[in-house]
Transcription repressor NadR (Weissella hellenica), 169 residues
Amino acid sequence: MTGIQRQEAIKAALSNPDAVISANQFAKQLMVSRQTIVGDIALLRARGEQIIATPQGYRYQAKQQHSTIIVVQHDAQQIEAELTALVDVGVTIADVQVDHPVYGLLKGELAIQSITDVKQFVYHLSKTSGEPLSALTDGLHMHRIEYEDVANLQKAKAALKDLHILYED
C-alpha cells in the first residue's frame, strides 16, 4: 500500500462523524508503524484536512455553529464535575488553554462531547504521571466550547457558576 492509498484509507475511516481512531489502531489496521501514521496525518493536515488529535484518537474537526472561550478556575479534583456539567447541557469542550508567563498560550485538544468522553479523559489523566495544564496556572484556565445555540451557552455558564468555578470580573 502506498502512502497516498494509506492516507485515503485514513480519510475514509475518519469520514464517519462518530469515528475516533488512535494512531496505534490505524497502524495495526494498515500494517505500518505508529510513526508512519503520525506522518500521514501530518501530511493530510498540511493539505488542509481538518484532522485533530484528541486524547481518544484522531477525528475530523466537528462542525458546530458557534464557539466561545470560557474562563474557569478550580483544582484538579473538580475536573470531572466541570466537564460533566458542560456535556450535560449539550456543549462540546474543544480544548483547554492556559496563559503561561514564559511560553504564552498553551493549548491541549480535548474534543469532549459526551459523559463517556469525560470518564475516559479523567481515567487517562489519573493513570498518567502528567498534570493537567491548569496546574501550571493555579487552576486558572480557559476552554473553547462549541454549542448549537445561545441557550446551550447560557446553561453552560449557569452550570459553572453553580459549581463556583466560572471566573468572572
Summary: Helices lie at 3-14, 23-30, 34-46, 79-88, 115-127, 150-162. The chain is about 40% helix and 25% strand.
